[in-house]
Amino acid sequence: ENIARSRVLTSLSVLTKSALQITLQTTIIMMTWSKDTLPSHIQQIASISFSLITLAKSCADHHYFESSGKDINAHTPYGQKIKRLLFNLVQILIRGFIIALLAGYLQFFILLFIFIMVIVNYIIALIVVKSDASKHLWTAFSAVLLPTCFASRDTFKNKDPSFGKKMFARFYRYNSVFFFFVFGVIALITTNFIIRYTEMSTFTCDNLPFLSYDDTCETHNSFPNQIFDLPAPHSWFYFLGNLL
Questions:
Q1: For 139-188, how does the pLDDT look when each residue is reduced to its tens digit (9 = 90+)?
Q2: Using an 8 Å Cβ cutoff, are 195 and 105 in contact?
């Protein structure tokens, strides 16, 4: 019991620390890319990479531990662990990049969409996982950056050994679909509207994201010219940001 509790608490600790650090540092890099020096970028990328690997490894272990019904003696082949690790890495890279990119333009409004995703995750967990309310709350917050799930041991009692894997797989599918709609559709449309037609997000030479360019700022930028006559200074976001 103590070992199982320790593993769950370790997973929660990694999820809360590494996930927030990855998202925050990626956003900072995007907003300071044209201002900081290469050594500074290398240090930041190294820090993000370490957090990314730590988070992916921890969540891979957590997945097999939880889906086994918290069986501390359950053995998982290394091939499956590596596949889950790579899956987590891809999920974190894609989701982290999307959230960080939108955060650079939405600024504090990104918190609204993170909150929406948390609520959606809670509802999905309530329907699919059918565990304790506290576990659903942990799942709701932890499944924003990558699909992950928490469930009580009672959920797996008198169930088939494959029950946990199938239940988690369903949650992961729903979580991925709703992430796409919340951030890839709704948040993206909102971002385009806010930066094009409102002044809700304010930009200066100090916080201009890397897909935007202002010729009055004395900074180097990889996208210095407009494209397809799209409105400046965010023309590259309207094109490349929407494609990504």
A1: 999 899 999 988 887 888 878 878 888 999 999 999 999 999 999 999 99
A2: yes
C-alpha distances out from residue 54 to 92, 140, 145, Å: 11, 20, 14
185 burial class (0-12, 13-18, 19+ CB within 10 angstroms)? exposed
Amino acid at 112: L
pLDDT at 2: 59
pLDDT digits (tens, 9 = 90+) for 40-65: 778 888 888 888 898 898 888 888 88
Q: Tokens 């907003």 — which residue?
A: 31
Beta carbons within 10 angstroms of residue 13's beta carbon? 11
Asked if residues 152 and 131 have their Cβ atoms less than 8 Å apart, the reply is yes
Model pTM score: 0.84
Residue in the block written with tokens 């490894």: 57
The two most distant CA atoms of the chain are separated, in Å, by 67
| Site of tokens 């989701």 | 95
> In whole angstroms, how large is the CA radius of gyration of the chain?
20
Question: Which tokens sit at 161?
Answer: 């050994």
Per-residue pLDDT of 205-219, as tens digits, reads 778 887 787 777 766
Nearest CA-CA partner of 223 in 231, 234, 152: 234
Which amino acid makes up residue 86? L
Separation CA 182–CA 190 (nearest Å): 10
